[in-house]
Hints:
Elements: E1 14-18, E2 34-38, E3 58-60, H1 67-71, H2 74-87, E4 95-99, H3 104-115, E5 119-124, H4 129-134, E6 139-142, E7 155-160, H5 167-172, E8 174-182, H6 187-196
Parallel strand pairs: 4-5, 4-7, 5-6, 7-8
Antiparallel strand pairs: 1-2, 2-3
Helix pairs in contact: 2-3
The chain binds NADP nicotinamide-adenine-dinucleotide phosphate.
NADP nicotinamide-adenine-dinucleotide phosphate is lined by residues 75-76, 79, 99-106, 123-125, 128, 143, 161-162, 164, 183-184.
Amino acid sequence: MGLLKPKGTRIGADIAGVVESVGKNVTQFKAGDEIYADLASCGGGGFAEYVTVPESYLAFKPANLSFEESAAVPMAAVTALQGLSDKGKIQAGQKVLINGASGGVGTYAVQLAKHFRAKVTAVCSTRNVEMVRSLGADHVIDYTQKNFTEGDEKYDLILGVNGYHPLSAYKRSLTPEGKYVMAGGTPKQIFSAVFFWKHHVN
Ligand SMILES: NC(=O)c1ccc[n+]([C@@H]2O[C@H](COP(=O)([O-])OP(=O)(O)OC[C@H]3O[C@@H](n4cnc5c(N)ncnc54)[C@H](OP(=O)(O)O)[C@@H]3O)[C@@H](O)[C@H]2O)c1
């Protein structure tokens, strides 16, 4: 991101590792602690071997996950959680559709939506149908065979991990009080959402 060139030049967001040393004001962590974090909003640098991180960005790595598994969690899983819970206000029993269910955000979203006891419809391509079903989706739509926005089914919440359909098409598939949450999208869709639809931006 940036007008003429990228503002941030330190690439990499998700990390998992061991605390090497701590500053004098750090209270929650000590050298040797196993942690994981998403550094996207504190300057990045996740691809480096060593990074300096404000302690508020760190969490203890779950003991039952490897460093590799832990490093795959922070940004994608939190994006899915924010989309479903913070923004989507997901409720048990709701009909929830995840468009892009087989990707980084979508695979977490399917599992989290089931955790919130929603009825989950997942949309992905043919090669991923069985994998997404194994994550717990109640229904799986193969987007190469069927366009769900042209069907009669209505959903209380749609999490779109990209701008695969115009907003008007998503709206057709929502119940009157339904919500569409966009986790990523084309500039055209983001512009349209901000200027032409009732929205909350974060
Ligand atoms: N990953 C993150 O940490 C993160 C965080 C914040 C925001 N985002 C944003 O969220 C968006 C998705 O990221 P991601 O990491 O989840 O991407 P990804 O891993 O590449 O997943 C993309 C998903 O979209 C599906 N897809 C592709 N073409 C489609 C179509 N025509 N109709 C419906 N689904 C289609 C893919 O299904 P198949 O593979 O089955 O074709 C896959 O499930 C991006 O805009 C990204 O910038 C990602």
